[in-house]
Amino acid sequence: MTNTLSRQTFVTSADGTKIAVAVTGQGRPLVISPGALNAAQDWQLLADALAPHLTTYAVDRRGHGASGDSPDHSLEREQEDIAAVLDLAGPDAVLLGHSYGGIVALGLALQRPPAAFILYEPPVPLHGPVGGDAIAPFEEAVAEGDLEHALAFGTRNFLRMPEEAIEEFRRSPVWATRASMTPTWAREVRAIDTFGDDLDRFARLTIPTLLVTGELSPPVLLDISRRLQEVLPISRLVQIPGHAHEAYLTAPETLAEEILPFVASVGT
Q1: What is the pTM of this model?
Q2: pLDDT tens figures, 179-238
Q3: Rounded Cα–Cα distance for residues 63 and 70 (Å)
Q4: Low-confidence ranges of the chain (pLDDT < 50)
Q5: DSSP 8-state assignment for residue 158
Q6: Contacting residues for 22 by C-beta, under 8 A, at least 6 apart
Q7: Which residue of 1, 2, 34, 260 is surrounded by the most CB atoms within 10 Å?
Q8: What is the largest CA-CA distance in the chain?
Q9: Residue pair 238/145 in contact by the 8 Å Cβ criterion
């Protein structure tokens, strides 16, 4: 894969917060709302794969990467951030939301449906709170500066990852980067827990939707995506074989092969 020239730009959200955006490629716009413990740079491999056909607007969500932040955090503020990027990208932009970023995108779409939607395993709390009683000890670890312990605790209690998967994650090159992002994770998990489990509200989203899952992703995430597919009127579900929740890193070309025909099928 060849590296494609990417440029950074900024938009100003409704509350005045500066939001950084990495813009890559040419063609129809694709706005990416990354998940927790993610920033725009994590999506560069996918942006490079899409670059001959799509212009990718990968967002540093507030508190991440080069974006600003404010003490007044809420899903509504994050939705306003993505709305500002959609304004930059234009009315025919497709919106991709991954994990927590998919929760942000789903909430925004109820007020402002994008031209089309790609959802990669949004953790709608259908099976009870994601954080619950685990948030307090997680925040204690962050406050004490033990970010690696916080990351291990969060993956165990928020993501329900098995111990062998956590140990494999700990040996990966992205472990330290993910640990550095844990200070914003608790507020994002709280936002997920307040999102609600009512899927019927999304039945009015009559926009073309591609739901992406990884074959090896946690069963709870696969179940949520299947149930969303049943509710969303114009949707289909695809699975990335042999990969899990981060196929944009582990299989960017394969993920691009699912995204490109979907976007091509959506009218402008």
Answers
A1: 0.95
A2: 999 999 999 999 999 999 999 999 999 999 999 999 999 889 999 999 999 999 999 999
A3: 8
A4: 1-2
A5: T
A6: 6, 7, 8, 40, 41, 43, 44, 47, 56, 57, 58, 60
A7: 34
A8: 51
A9: no
